[in-house]
Specification:
The structure is a single chain. The protein is of the alpha+beta class and 183 residues long. It folds into 2 domains: 8-40; 41-182, START domain (Alpha-D-Glucose-1,6-Bisphosphate, Chain A, domain 4). It has 4 helices and 8 strands, in the order αβααβββββββα. The protein has a 5-stranded antiparallel sheet with strand order 1-8-7-6-5. Strand 3 and strand 4 form a beta hairpin. Helix 2 (54-62) crosses helix 4. The mean pLDDT is 89. This is Polyketide cyclase / dehydrase and lipid transport. InterPro entries: Polyketide_cyclase/dehydratase, START-like_dom_sf.
Length: 183
């Protein structure tokens, strides 16, 4: 009986095992990154105090059809301001206009409007936008506009979000305050 050695076959096993280990490490790293970008969101926030009642601020905020008359940030909006409804919003910032279709998460008159917009499937680039109305004293409210961005692409756009989107929050808040004053 003759025994024949096959050194080429034996050397493929350790190489294949190394490739599997490297692939597993890459996948684990990507999975960890995906989890991290969704657990640690990037948040933008701008607030303003307005001489108005919560209902007066809500009336302007919830009148989507009039956004094109006063809003420099969300220049067009349509849909129903109700939890579960889908809105169609056109947003303008320094990079141009973008239309998106967020789902309303909360619509509490005089208190809160909140929606969730997604670019692609969830976890890629999600933005939970909120307008919170808090009465500071009778006849004066604080409007806080925030957005929590999460998803695997968000870290690559943090600078753009800060430089291009955050100023639009302030511009919208100011314009909303002027619109309430005009009544």
């Amino acid at each position: 009986m003759t025994l024949t050695e096959h050194p080429a076959r034996e050397s493929k096993k350790p190489r294949r095992k190394r490739l599997l280990v490297v692939a597993a490490l890459v996948l684990a790293t990507l999975a960890g990154y995906a989890v991290w970008t969704n657990v640690v969101p990037y948040t933008l926030s701008a607030s303003i105090e307005i001489d108005a009642t919560p209902d007066e601020v809500w009336a302007v905020l919830a009148d989507l059809d009039a956004y094109d008359e006063w809003n420099p940030f969300i220049v067009a909006s349509s849909g129903t301001v109700a939890a579960g409804a889908t809105l169609t919003n056109t947003m303008r910032d320094a990079t141009g206009e973008t239309t998106f279709t967020p789902t309303v998460l909360a619509a509490t008159p005089g208190r809160e409007l909140r929606w969730l917009g997604k670019l692609g499937p969830g976890g890629v680039f999600d933005g939970e936008h909120a307008f919170l109305i808090d009465q500071v004293r009778p006849g004066r409210v604080r409007l806080v506009q925030t957005e929590r961005f999460s998803g695997v692409l968000v870290p690559f756009f943090r600078g753009q979000l800060h430089d291009n989107t955050l100023p639009q929050f302030g511009a919208m808040n100011e314009a909303l305050a002027q619109r309430v004053d005009r009544g």
